[in-house]
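#struct-help
A.M.: can someone run this one for me? Single chain, 482 residues.
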Amino acid sequence: MAQTPDGMDDFGYITGDALTEEFGEKHLDCLKSLTVAFRTPDFRANVKEDVLKGLKTLLEKSFAAMKNLDEEDKEKSMCLQVATECFRSLRNACVQCYNNQCRLRELGFIETTVEILRVVHKCQDKDSDCLCNVLHCGIQFLGNLAVQNQSCKDEIWEHGFPRLFLDLLDTSDQKAVAYTCMALHTCLNEDKVEQLTQKQDSFAVALKVLELCRTQPELDWTILIVTEHFLKSQTLIEMMLSTMSPQERLTLLELISAHLGEGREESEECGILPATAEFLAGCFKDSCKAVLLLDSGDSSDDEEAVIVIRLLDILCEMTSGLKVFMSLQDHPDLLETTVVLLKEVHFLGREGKNVFSSAQNFAEMGTGGAPSHPIISFKAHLVRLIGNLCHRNTTNQNKVRELDGVSLILDNCSLDSNNPFISQWAVFAIRNILENNSENQQVIQTLRRQGVADDSALRDMGFRVEERDGNLLLRPVKKDPK
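D.P.: on it. C-alpha coordinates below:
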Protein backbone atom coordinates (compact mmCIF):
# COMPACT_ATOMS: atom_id res chain seq x y z
CA MET A 1 0.00 0.00 0.00
CA ALA A 2 1.31 3.44 -0.87
CA GLN A 3 2.30 5.76 1.93
CA THR A 4 0.00 8.73 2.51
CA PRO A 5 1.75 11.93 1.35
CA ASP A 6 2.08 14.85 3.72
CA GLY A 7 -1.21 16.65 4.18
CA MET A 8 -3.39 13.78 2.93
CA ASP A 9 -4.37 12.56 6.39
CA ASP A 10 -6.44 15.72 6.82
CA PHE A 11 -8.05 15.63 3.37
CA GLY A 12 -11.26 13.99 4.61
CA TYR A 13 -11.56 16.54 7.40
CA ILE A 14 -10.86 19.43 5.07
CA THR A 15 -13.48 18.14 2.62
CA GLY A 16 -16.12 17.88 5.32
CA ASP A 17 -15.14 21.28 6.66
CA ALA A 18 -15.71 22.82 3.22
CA LEU A 19 -19.40 21.88 3.38
CA THR A 20 -20.03 24.33 6.18
CA GLU A 21 -17.34 26.97 5.65
CA GLU A 22 -16.37 29.34 2.89
CA PHE A 23 -13.38 28.25 0.81
CA GLY A 24 -10.05 29.43 2.15
CA GLU A 25 -6.33 28.95 1.79
CA LYS A 26 -6.36 25.72 3.79
CA HIS A 27 -8.65 24.09 1.23
CA LEU A 28 -6.51 25.30 -1.63
CA ASP A 29 -3.26 24.18 0.03
CA CYS A 30 -4.67 20.73 0.69
CA LEU A 31 -5.70 20.39 -2.97
CA LYS A 32 -2.26 21.47 -4.13
CA SER A 33 -0.73 18.72 -2.01
CA LEU A 34 -3.13 16.24 -3.59
CA THR A 35 -2.18 17.42 -7.08
CA VAL A 36 1.47 16.72 -6.29
CA ALA A 37 0.62 13.34 -4.77
CA PHE A 38 -1.20 12.23 -7.93
CA ARG A 39 2.02 12.61 -9.89
CA THR A 40 3.26 9.46 -8.13
CA PRO A 41 2.16 6.27 -9.94
CA ASP A 42 1.94 4.32 -6.68
CA PHE A 43 -0.39 6.88 -5.09
CA ARG A 44 -2.56 7.03 -8.20
CA ALA A 45 -2.93 3.28 -8.27
CA ASN A 46 -3.97 3.04 -4.60
CA VAL A 47 -5.93 6.22 -3.96
CA LYS A 48 -8.96 5.66 -1.76
CA GLU A 49 -12.50 6.17 -3.02
CA ASP A 50 -13.12 8.75 -0.29
CA VAL A 51 -10.44 11.00 -1.81
CA LEU A 52 -12.15 10.97 -5.19
CA LYS A 53 -15.54 11.56 -3.59
CA GLY A 54 -14.04 14.46 -1.66
CA LEU A 55 -12.85 16.01 -4.92
CA LYS A 56 -16.38 15.68 -6.27
CA THR A 57 -17.72 17.50 -3.21
CA LEU A 58 -15.28 20.37 -3.58
CA LEU A 59 -15.89 20.66 -7.32
CA GLU A 60 -19.67 20.72 -6.93
CA LYS A 61 -19.50 23.38 -4.20
CA SER A 62 -17.20 25.54 -6.30
CA PHE A 63 -19.56 25.13 -9.25
CA ALA A 64 -22.54 26.26 -7.17
CA ALA A 65 -20.61 29.33 -6.07
CA MET A 66 -19.59 30.12 -9.68
CA LYS A 67 -23.20 30.36 -10.79
CA ASN A 68 -23.95 33.00 -8.15
CA LEU A 69 -20.89 35.20 -8.66
CA ASP A 70 -21.15 38.83 -9.68
CA GLU A 71 -18.97 39.90 -12.57
CA GLU A 72 -16.79 41.98 -10.28
CA ASP A 73 -16.12 39.06 -7.93
CA LYS A 74 -15.01 36.42 -10.48
CA GLU A 75 -11.36 37.36 -10.53
CA LYS A 76 -11.07 37.36 -6.73
CA SER A 77 -13.15 34.33 -5.98
CA MET A 78 -11.50 31.45 -4.16
CA CYS A 79 -14.02 29.08 -5.70
CA LEU A 80 -12.41 29.47 -9.16
CA GLN A 81 -9.01 28.64 -7.74
CA VAL A 82 -10.44 25.62 -5.94
CA ALA A 83 -12.13 24.40 -9.13
CA THR A 84 -8.88 24.82 -11.05
CA GLU A 85 -6.89 22.85 -8.48
CA CYS A 86 -9.57 20.13 -8.41
CA PHE A 87 -9.18 19.75 -12.17
CA ARG A 88 -5.39 19.63 -11.85
CA SER A 89 -5.66 16.81 -9.31
CA LEU A 90 -8.18 14.95 -11.48
CA ARG A 91 -6.03 15.48 -14.57
CA ASN A 92 -3.08 13.86 -12.81
CA ALA A 93 -5.21 11.06 -11.35
CA CYS A 94 -6.06 9.83 -14.87
CA VAL A 95 -2.52 9.49 -16.19
CA GLN A 96 -1.92 5.84 -17.20
CA CYS A 97 -4.56 4.71 -14.72
CA TYR A 98 -7.56 3.04 -16.36
CA ASN A 99 -9.09 2.19 -12.98
CA ASN A 100 -9.18 5.82 -11.87
CA GLN A 101 -10.68 6.87 -15.20
CA CYS A 102 -13.53 4.41 -14.70
CA ARG A 103 -14.09 5.40 -11.07
CA LEU A 104 -14.25 9.08 -11.94
CA ARG A 105 -16.72 8.37 -14.72
CA GLU A 106 -18.90 6.33 -12.37
CA LEU A 107 -18.84 9.15 -9.79
CA GLY A 108 -20.32 11.53 -12.37
CA PHE A 109 -17.32 13.78 -12.95
CA ILE A 110 -17.88 13.99 -16.72
CA GLU A 111 -21.34 15.55 -16.55
CA THR A 112 -20.27 17.95 -13.79
CA THR A 113 -17.16 19.03 -15.71
CA VAL A 114 -19.12 19.62 -18.93
CA GLU A 115 -21.60 21.83 -17.06
CA ILE A 116 -18.78 23.82 -15.43
CA LEU A 117 -17.08 24.36 -18.80
CA ARG A 118 -20.34 25.59 -20.30
CA VAL A 119 -20.85 28.14 -17.53
CA VAL A 120 -17.23 29.32 -17.55
CA HIS A 121 -17.24 29.69 -21.35
CA LYS A 122 -20.37 31.85 -21.27
CA CYS A 123 -19.04 34.28 -18.66
CA GLN A 124 -15.37 34.16 -19.66
CA ASP A 125 -13.53 37.47 -19.63
CA LYS A 126 -10.37 37.54 -21.67
CA ASP A 127 -8.70 39.46 -18.84
CA SER A 128 -9.67 36.90 -16.18
CA ASP A 129 -6.81 34.49 -15.55
CA CYS A 130 -8.86 32.56 -12.99
CA LEU A 131 -11.61 31.80 -15.49
CA CYS A 132 -9.06 30.82 -18.13
CA ASN A 133 -7.33 28.46 -15.72
CA VAL A 134 -10.61 26.70 -14.89
CA LEU A 135 -11.33 26.31 -18.58
CA HIS A 136 -7.85 25.04 -19.47
CA CYS A 137 -7.58 22.51 -16.65
CA GLY A 138 -11.15 21.27 -17.09
CA ILE A 139 -10.61 20.55 -20.78
CA GLN A 140 -7.28 18.86 -20.05
CA PHE A 141 -8.98 16.66 -17.45
CA LEU A 142 -11.56 15.48 -20.00
CA GLY A 143 -8.78 14.81 -22.50
CA ASN A 144 -6.80 12.68 -20.03
CA LEU A 145 -9.96 10.93 -18.91
CA ALA A 146 -10.65 9.79 -22.48
CA VAL A 147 -7.19 8.40 -23.29
CA GLN A 148 -7.52 4.67 -24.11
CA ASN A 149 -10.89 4.45 -22.33
CA GLN A 150 -13.80 3.96 -24.69
CA SER A 151 -16.50 4.29 -22.02
CA CYS A 152 -15.15 7.70 -21.01
CA LYS A 153 -14.86 8.77 -24.64
CA ASP A 154 -18.47 7.84 -25.29
CA GLU A 155 -19.78 9.66 -22.21
CA ILE A 156 -17.77 12.81 -22.93
CA TRP A 157 -19.18 12.71 -26.45
CA GLU A 158 -22.71 12.19 -25.15
CA HIS A 159 -22.58 15.23 -22.85
CA GLY A 160 -20.30 17.55 -24.83
CA PHE A 161 -21.06 16.99 -28.52
CA PRO A 162 -21.66 19.03 -30.54
CA ARG A 163 -22.41 22.25 -28.63
CA LEU A 164 -19.59 22.31 -26.08
CA PHE A 165 -16.95 21.27 -28.63
CA LEU A 166 -18.17 23.90 -31.08
CA ASP A 167 -18.23 26.65 -28.44
CA LEU A 168 -14.73 25.84 -27.20
CA LEU A 169 -13.31 25.60 -30.72
CA ASP A 170 -14.75 29.04 -31.43
CA THR A 171 -13.27 30.78 -28.38
CA SER A 172 -10.54 33.41 -28.72
CA ASP A 173 -8.50 31.59 -26.06
CA GLN A 174 -5.90 29.75 -28.15
CA LYS A 175 -4.85 27.42 -25.34
CA ALA A 176 -8.47 26.38 -24.79
CA VAL A 177 -8.79 25.74 -28.53
CA ALA A 178 -5.65 23.58 -28.55
CA TYR A 179 -6.77 21.53 -25.54
CA THR A 180 -10.23 21.10 -27.08
CA CYS A 181 -8.68 19.81 -30.30
CA MET A 182 -6.68 17.31 -28.25
CA ALA A 183 -9.82 16.08 -26.50
CA LEU A 184 -11.76 15.94 -29.78
CA HIS A 185 -9.01 13.93 -31.48
CA THR A 186 -8.94 11.49 -28.55
CA CYS A 187 -12.71 10.95 -28.61
CA LEU A 188 -13.14 10.51 -32.37
CA ASN A 189 -13.57 7.15 -34.06
CA GLU A 190 -15.23 5.97 -37.27
CA ASP A 191 -18.78 6.11 -35.87
CA LYS A 192 -18.33 9.56 -34.36
CA VAL A 193 -16.85 10.92 -37.60
CA GLU A 194 -19.98 9.78 -39.40
CA GLN A 195 -22.06 11.67 -36.84
CA LEU A 196 -20.37 14.84 -38.07
CA THR A 197 -22.28 14.42 -41.35
CA GLN A 198 -25.75 13.94 -39.88
CA LYS A 199 -26.78 17.31 -38.41
CA GLN A 200 -25.94 20.94 -39.13
CA ASP A 201 -24.44 21.60 -35.67
CA SER A 202 -22.39 18.42 -35.93
CA PHE A 203 -21.10 19.29 -39.38
CA ALA A 204 -20.21 22.76 -38.07
CA VAL A 205 -17.61 21.11 -35.80
CA ALA A 206 -15.87 19.62 -38.85
CA LEU A 207 -15.98 22.95 -40.67
CA LYS A 208 -14.52 24.72 -37.64
CA VAL A 209 -11.63 22.25 -37.50
CA LEU A 210 -10.82 22.99 -41.16
CA GLU A 211 -11.03 26.72 -40.52
CA LEU A 212 -8.52 26.32 -37.69
CA CYS A 213 -6.21 24.35 -40.00
CA ARG A 214 -6.08 27.44 -42.20
CA THR A 215 -6.05 30.19 -39.57
CA GLN A 216 -3.90 28.45 -36.94
CA PRO A 217 -1.63 26.07 -38.88
CA GLU A 218 0.66 25.69 -35.86
CA LEU A 219 -2.04 23.58 -34.13
CA ASP A 220 -0.88 20.01 -34.72
CA TRP A 221 -4.07 18.51 -33.27
CA THR A 222 -6.27 19.94 -36.03
CA ILE A 223 -3.99 18.43 -38.68
CA LEU A 224 -4.15 15.05 -36.91
CA ILE A 225 -7.95 15.25 -36.68
CA VAL A 226 -8.18 15.73 -40.44
CA THR A 227 -5.52 13.22 -41.53
CA GLU A 228 -6.29 10.47 -39.00
CA HIS A 229 -10.08 10.76 -38.91
CA PHE A 230 -11.75 13.03 -41.49
CA LEU A 231 -9.91 11.63 -44.53
CA LYS A 232 -11.24 8.15 -43.75
CA SER A 233 -14.83 9.27 -44.36
CA GLN A 234 -15.91 9.57 -47.96
CA THR A 235 -19.22 11.18 -46.96
CA LEU A 236 -17.57 13.86 -44.82
CA ILE A 237 -14.97 14.77 -47.46
CA GLU A 238 -17.66 15.07 -50.12
CA MET A 239 -19.81 17.28 -47.89
CA MET A 240 -16.90 19.52 -46.99
CA LEU A 241 -15.69 20.01 -50.55
CA SER A 242 -19.26 20.67 -51.69
CA THR A 243 -20.07 23.33 -49.08
CA MET A 244 -16.84 25.05 -47.99
CA SER A 245 -15.45 28.32 -49.26
CA PRO A 246 -12.65 28.13 -51.87
CA GLN A 247 -10.06 28.91 -49.18
CA GLU A 248 -11.23 26.06 -46.94
CA ARG A 249 -11.44 23.67 -49.89
CA LEU A 250 -7.89 24.55 -50.84
CA THR A 251 -6.76 23.94 -47.25
CA LEU A 252 -8.35 20.49 -47.25
CA LEU A 253 -6.82 19.58 -50.61
CA GLU A 254 -3.38 20.71 -49.44
CA LEU A 255 -3.73 18.50 -46.37
CA ILE A 256 -4.69 15.54 -48.57
CA SER A 257 -1.72 16.19 -50.85
CA ALA A 258 0.71 16.48 -47.92
CA HIS A 259 -0.72 13.34 -46.33
CA LEU A 260 -0.22 11.35 -49.52
CA GLY A 261 3.33 12.63 -49.85
CA GLU A 262 4.24 11.80 -46.26
CA GLY A 263 2.78 8.31 -46.40
CA ARG A 264 4.64 6.93 -49.39
CA GLU A 265 6.33 4.18 -47.36
CA GLU A 266 2.98 3.11 -45.89
CA SER A 267 1.12 3.88 -49.09
CA GLU A 268 -1.51 1.19 -48.73
CA GLU A 269 -2.38 2.43 -45.22
CA CYS A 270 -2.99 6.09 -46.03
CA GLY A 271 -6.63 5.79 -44.92
CA ILE A 272 -8.18 7.56 -47.91
CA LEU A 273 -10.85 5.41 -49.52
CA PRO A 274 -10.83 4.59 -53.26
CA ALA A 275 -14.33 6.06 -53.43
CA THR A 276 -12.93 9.38 -52.19
CA ALA A 277 -10.31 9.26 -54.93
CA GLU A 278 -13.09 8.69 -57.47
CA PHE A 279 -14.93 11.72 -56.09
CA LEU A 280 -11.82 13.89 -56.36
CA ALA A 281 -11.34 12.75 -59.94
CA GLY A 282 -14.93 13.78 -60.65
CA CYS A 283 -14.28 17.20 -59.11
CA PHE A 284 -11.27 17.63 -61.38
CA LYS A 285 -13.27 16.61 -64.44
CA ASP A 286 -16.14 18.98 -63.61
CA SER A 287 -14.07 22.05 -62.72
CA CYS A 288 -10.87 21.73 -64.77
CA LYS A 289 -11.87 24.46 -67.25
CA ALA A 290 -11.46 27.02 -64.45
CA VAL A 291 -7.72 26.85 -64.94
CA LEU A 292 -8.10 28.34 -68.42
CA LEU A 293 -9.34 31.58 -66.78
CA LEU A 294 -6.25 31.91 -64.60
CA ASP A 295 -4.93 34.83 -66.63
CA SER A 296 -8.25 36.69 -66.63
CA GLY A 297 -7.37 38.98 -63.72
CA ASP A 298 -10.42 37.93 -61.67
CA SER A 299 -9.29 36.80 -58.19
CA SER A 300 -12.31 34.49 -57.80
CA ASP A 301 -11.28 32.72 -61.00
CA ASP A 302 -7.77 32.36 -59.58
CA GLU A 303 -9.08 30.63 -56.44
CA GLU A 304 -11.04 28.08 -58.45
CA ALA A 305 -8.07 27.55 -60.77
CA VAL A 306 -5.72 26.85 -57.85
CA ILE A 307 -8.20 24.26 -56.58
CA VAL A 308 -7.99 22.52 -59.97
CA ILE A 309 -4.19 22.63 -59.76
CA ARG A 310 -4.25 20.99 -56.31
CA LEU A 311 -6.68 18.34 -57.49
CA LEU A 312 -4.27 17.50 -60.31
CA ASP A 313 -1.38 17.24 -57.84
CA ILE A 314 -3.41 14.81 -55.73
CA LEU A 315 -4.42 12.67 -58.72
CA CYS A 316 -0.77 12.47 -59.80
CA GLU A 317 0.23 11.21 -56.35
CA MET A 318 -2.65 8.75 -56.14
CA THR A 319 -1.83 7.17 -59.50
CA SER A 320 1.93 6.96 -58.84
CA GLY A 321 2.07 3.30 -57.91
CA LEU A 322 -0.54 3.32 -55.13
CA LYS A 323 -2.45 0.13 -55.88
CA VAL A 324 -5.42 1.16 -53.77
CA PHE A 325 -6.11 4.05 -56.18
CA MET A 326 -5.38 2.38 -59.51
CA SER A 327 -9.12 2.10 -60.13
CA LEU A 328 -8.70 5.70 -61.32
CA GLN A 329 -7.37 4.22 -64.56
CA ASP A 330 -10.95 3.09 -65.19
CA HIS A 331 -12.59 6.35 -64.12
CA PRO A 332 -15.02 7.50 -66.85
CA ASP A 333 -13.62 10.38 -68.88
CA LEU A 334 -10.68 11.19 -66.55
CA LEU A 335 -8.06 10.39 -69.16
CA GLU A 336 -9.96 12.13 -71.95
CA THR A 337 -10.46 15.21 -69.74
CA THR A 338 -6.73 15.34 -69.03
CA VAL A 339 -5.67 14.96 -72.67
CA VAL A 340 -8.18 17.57 -73.89
CA LEU A 341 -7.11 19.99 -71.16
CA LEU A 342 -3.44 19.49 -72.10
CA LYS A 343 -4.35 20.36 -75.71
CA GLU A 344 -6.14 23.54 -74.68
CA VAL A 345 -3.38 24.68 -72.34
CA HIS A 346 -0.72 23.86 -74.93
CA PHE A 347 -2.48 25.78 -77.71
CA LEU A 348 -3.25 28.76 -75.44
CA GLY A 349 0.43 28.97 -74.61
CA ARG A 350 1.29 29.09 -78.31
CA GLU A 351 -1.21 31.84 -79.15
CA GLY A 352 0.73 34.51 -77.31
CA LYS A 353 2.75 35.22 -74.23
CA ASN A 354 0.66 34.24 -71.21
CA VAL A 355 0.85 32.07 -68.08
CA PHE A 356 0.67 28.93 -70.23
CA SER A 357 3.52 29.86 -72.58
CA SER A 358 6.84 28.04 -72.46
CA ALA A 359 9.82 29.92 -71.08
CA GLN A 360 13.57 29.53 -70.90
CA ASN A 361 14.28 31.41 -67.66
CA PHE A 362 16.49 28.71 -66.21
CA ALA A 363 18.72 31.22 -64.44
CA GLU A 364 15.82 31.93 -62.06
CA MET A 365 15.39 28.26 -61.15
CA GLY A 366 17.13 26.58 -58.27
CA THR A 367 17.26 29.73 -56.13
CA GLY A 368 15.40 27.99 -53.33
CA GLY A 369 12.32 30.19 -53.55
CA ALA A 370 8.77 29.01 -54.11
CA PRO A 371 7.35 29.10 -57.65
CA SER A 372 6.18 32.62 -58.50
CA HIS A 373 2.92 31.48 -60.08
CA PRO A 374 0.58 28.59 -59.18
CA ILE A 375 0.50 27.45 -62.82
CA ILE A 376 4.16 26.43 -62.63
CA SER A 377 4.43 22.68 -63.47
CA PHE A 378 0.71 22.39 -64.32
CA LYS A 379 1.30 21.22 -67.88
CA ALA A 380 4.05 18.86 -66.72
CA HIS A 381 1.65 17.31 -64.22
CA LEU A 382 -1.00 16.82 -66.93
CA VAL A 383 1.59 14.85 -68.90
CA ARG A 384 2.54 12.95 -65.76
CA LEU A 385 -1.10 11.99 -65.05
CA ILE A 386 -1.57 10.77 -68.62
CA GLY A 387 1.53 8.60 -68.24
CA ASN A 388 0.28 7.21 -64.93
CA LEU A 389 -3.16 6.39 -66.31
CA CYS A 390 -1.62 4.56 -69.29
CA HIS A 391 0.73 2.40 -67.22
CA ARG A 392 0.09 -1.18 -68.37
CA ASN A 393 -3.45 -0.25 -69.37
CA THR A 394 -4.18 -1.03 -73.01
CA THR A 395 -7.56 0.68 -73.01
CA ASN A 396 -6.06 3.98 -71.95
CA GLN A 397 -3.10 3.60 -74.29
CA ASN A 398 -5.54 3.24 -77.17
CA LYS A 399 -7.62 6.17 -75.99
CA VAL A 400 -4.60 8.48 -76.03
CA ARG A 401 -3.94 7.45 -79.62
CA GLU A 402 -7.58 8.03 -80.59
CA LEU A 403 -7.42 11.51 -79.06
CA ASP A 404 -4.25 12.37 -81.04
CA GLY A 405 -2.44 12.53 -77.73
CA VAL A 406 0.78 10.82 -78.87
CA SER A 407 1.98 13.71 -81.03
CA LEU A 408 0.73 16.15 -78.39
CA ILE A 409 2.99 14.63 -75.76
CA LEU A 410 5.91 14.48 -78.19
CA ASP A 411 5.36 18.19 -78.76
CA ASN A 412 5.93 18.74 -75.02
CA CYS A 413 9.39 17.19 -74.87
CA SER A 414 11.17 20.54 -75.00
CA LEU A 415 12.72 22.06 -71.91
CA ASP A 416 10.48 24.63 -70.27
CA SER A 417 11.34 26.61 -67.12
CA ASN A 418 7.62 27.09 -66.44
CA ASN A 419 7.24 23.31 -66.37
CA PRO A 420 10.31 21.78 -64.72
CA PHE A 421 10.85 18.12 -65.63
CA ILE A 422 8.15 18.20 -68.34
CA SER A 423 10.57 16.56 -70.77
CA GLN A 424 11.22 13.73 -68.33
CA TRP A 425 7.52 13.23 -67.72
CA ALA A 426 6.94 13.23 -71.49
CA VAL A 427 9.52 10.45 -71.93
CA PHE A 428 7.85 8.55 -69.08
CA ALA A 429 4.40 9.00 -70.65
CA ILE A 430 5.57 7.94 -74.14
CA ARG A 431 7.20 4.85 -72.66
CA ASN A 432 3.90 3.87 -70.94
CA ILE A 433 1.84 4.66 -74.03
CA LEU A 434 4.03 2.50 -76.30
CA GLU A 435 4.62 -0.44 -73.98
CA ASN A 436 3.28 -3.64 -75.59
CA ASN A 437 1.04 -1.60 -77.89
CA SER A 438 1.93 -2.18 -81.53
CA GLU A 439 -0.68 0.27 -82.85
CA ASN A 440 0.78 3.15 -80.82
CA GLN A 441 4.26 2.15 -81.90
CA GLN A 442 3.05 2.29 -85.48
CA VAL A 443 1.86 5.85 -84.90
CA ILE A 444 5.38 6.85 -83.85
CA GLN A 445 6.85 5.12 -86.90
CA THR A 446 4.43 6.94 -89.18
CA LEU A 447 5.17 10.29 -87.59
CA ARG A 448 8.91 9.77 -87.96
CA ARG A 449 8.60 8.75 -91.61
CA GLN A 450 6.47 11.85 -92.27
CA GLY A 451 8.98 14.02 -90.47
CA VAL A 452 6.35 15.13 -87.97
CA ALA A 453 7.96 13.75 -84.85
CA ASP A 454 11.38 15.17 -84.18
CA ASP A 455 13.28 13.14 -81.59
CA SER A 456 15.97 15.78 -81.08
CA ALA A 457 14.43 16.74 -77.74
CA LEU A 458 14.66 13.12 -76.65
CA ARG A 459 18.29 13.02 -77.76
CA ASP A 460 19.01 16.17 -75.78
CA MET A 461 17.86 14.27 -72.71
CA GLY A 462 20.01 11.27 -73.54
CA PHE A 463 17.38 9.06 -75.23
CA ARG A 464 16.72 7.91 -78.76
CA VAL A 465 13.91 6.03 -80.48
CA GLU A 466 15.08 2.66 -81.82
CA GLU A 467 13.09 0.40 -84.13
CA ARG A 468 13.54 -3.34 -83.57
CA ASP A 469 11.45 -6.15 -85.07
CA GLY A 470 8.71 -3.70 -85.92
CA ASN A 471 8.61 -2.27 -82.38
CA LEU A 472 9.83 1.09 -81.12
CA LEU A 473 12.00 1.23 -78.03
CA LEU A 474 13.39 4.13 -75.99
CA ARG A 475 17.11 3.63 -75.54
CA PRO A 476 19.82 5.75 -73.93
CA VAL A 477 22.13 7.49 -76.36
CA LYS A 478 25.60 6.00 -76.29
CA LYS A 479 28.25 8.58 -75.57
CA ASP A 480 31.31 8.72 -77.79
CA PRO A 481 34.39 7.43 -75.99
CA LYS A 482 36.86 10.16 -75.07
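A.M.: thanks! The radius of gyration is 31 Å.
D.P.: also worth noting: The longest strand covers residues 463-468.
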